[in-house]
Amino acid sequence: MAILGKMRLSGVVAPALGTDDNYVTDTEKAALHTQNTDTALGTQTEILDMGGYKIQNLADATIGSDAVNLHQVLEIVPSERKFYLGDTASALANYKKLVETAETTPRTITVTITASDQNIRSAVGDVGWITDATVPNVTTLRAGSYVLHFYAKQTTLAGNKGVTLYSKMWNVDADGTTNLNLLGISSATRLLSATTSDYNVEIHLATPVTIDATDRIIIKVYATLSGSGTNPEIVFGYGDSATTDSNQAFPVDSADLQDLISKKHTQNTDTGLGTLSTKNPPIDADKTIYRDSTASDGLVTSTWTQIKAFLKTYFDGLYQIKVGDLYLSTDTTDPATKLGYGTWSAFGAGRVLVGLDIADADFNTAEKIGGAKTVAAAGSNAAEAAHTHLVDTNVTVDNHSAITADLTGITDVVVNDVAHVVTNNQVTSLAGSSHNHAFTGSATSVVQPYIVVYMFKRTA
Predict the structure, then answer these.
(1) 3-class state of residue 342 by DSSP
(2) In which region does residue 73 sit, left (phi positive, over 0), alpha (psi from -120 to 50) or beta (all else)?
(3) What value does the mean pLDDT take over residues 437-445?
(4) Where are the alpha helices (DSSP H) in 206-303?
(5) φ/ψ bin of 380: left (φ > 0), alpha (ψ from -120 to 50), beta (otherwise)
(6) Alpha carbon distances (Å) from 271 to 258, 262, 265, 292
(7) Lowest mean pLDDT: which of 194-198, 317-321, 326-330?
């Protein structure tokens, strides 16, 4: 640069617009950046080289293409993974769940401590907190500090023994009992005060611990007594509170984060998962994973309760007994109770079912009744059994003992309109005579072999 001072140049050629370095057009001027004044730049078309300098005061990113500042990175990428002490019962007896989402309801346990190393959850009938199977879903617990954060107080200090709290942590197989392994015992709190305070106790793993990806983590909290006096009462707080959410923290590094990210499911976006563990049988709160055909085959979940409700509706539509249909059973229970639907009435008491026969007047209409269990041996039935003897030649009946009258001197007699001749105490029916026999007796059963069942008809 030439410094002219107070000298003046003359005879300078006028600059060409837009071409000489000492002259810019209005358009070019508008594109210039004014230090500490401009609030926006045009679209960057080449690599921006900061020459070793940094960008400061970068706002938090709001969309995927925004640059992220260090403050936001530290918030988004945790240095630890937290599992919260929940109040939801685990599927395993005697445990509450250790979960990755804090509950929104404050919880407390009030318990009188009567001996050192007393499990504080003994007051509520269980023993501690446990993760679900496959949680935390890692194969290595890294070396470092595992801090349990909670809040507690001692209700009365004067005249009472002092109390400190500590924790123990285990890993265990998915069944909650096999290969139980004590990972460590934490440091103890200071003596509890009469005011609810936050406390941290720490378990330190000196070296990494290898576990199975399906292992669970167990946390238990214990109390220790000190000094003399009355056994004290304490209040242990967990769940949500004004000051803290009680949690067990697990340290993580970049490798852990990468592993977790690789296992993370993005709702409505992921189309595949890695290897999954198995469980049998499922419970209502369990979830299944499937592809949503209405959302580009993204992976979604439904609970077992939702799946059962869907299947019931589906199969009821296919197989539900319709109004007017029959239900047969050897159980007297009302089908409305048994099947869960419909109004039913007893049907066909004491009768068998017969297939409809449109050509038979007795069987040509549904629900038509008829028939009898017996046939009488009298009346028309008996008349058909009666018959007549026609005598067309003389018939001699020897020793006709059924005739009790004295036949001496009698040469002819009429019995039941049949002419007879009596000779030497013999009775001869004369030709051209006839007689008949009538039948009477008890009704005859015509019941077929049978087996009795309950029959119901759906009426509504």
Answers:
(1) coil
(2) alpha
(3) 65
(4) 254-263
(5) alpha
(6) 19, 13, 9, 10
(7) 317-321
* The predicted structure's pLDDT at residue 48: 76
> Is residue 241 in some structural domain?
yes
CA end-to-end span of the chain: 103
Residues 85 and 239: beta-carbon distance below 8 Å:
yes
**How far apart, in whole angstroms, are the C-alpha atoms of residue 16 and residue 347?**
111
For the chain, the domain total comes to: 2
Least Cα distance to 87 among 120, 129, 123 occurs for: 129
Burial of 255 (0-12, 13-18, 19+ CB in 10 A): exposed
Statement: residue 393 has pLDDT above 70? no
Asked whether residue 67 is domain-assigned, the answer is: no
In a domain, 231, yes or no: yes
Q: How far apart are CA 9 and CA 23, in angstroms?
A: 17
Q: Encoding tokens for residue 415?
A: 């019995």
Q: Are 385 and 439 in contact (CB under 8 A)?
A: yes
Q: Using an 8 Å Cβ cutoff, are 247 and 193 in contact?
A: no
Helix (H, G, I), strand (E, B) or coil at 381: helix
What would you report as the CA-atom Rg of the chain, rounded to the nearest whole angstrom?
51
E-strand stretches of 227-381: 233-239, 247-251, 287-292, 298-303, 326-329, 344-346, 374-375
Q: Report residue 318 as tokens.
A: 């296919």
Please give the C-alpha separations between residue 49 and each of 44, 46, 52, 382, in angstroms, as whole numbers.
11, 9, 8, 124
Q: How far, in Å, CA of 169 to CA of 165, rounded?
A: 14
Per-residue burial over 264-288, b if 16 or more Cβ lie within 10 Å, else e, is eeeeeeeeeeeeeeeeeeeeeebee
- Residue 213: CB atoms within 10 A of its CB come to 15
Residue-wise pLDDT tens digits, 280-299? 888 998 888 888 888 777 77
Residue range(s) defining the domain that contains residue 411: 387-437
Asked, for residue 21, whether it belongs to a domain, the answer is: no
Neighbour tally for 423: CB within 10 Å? 12
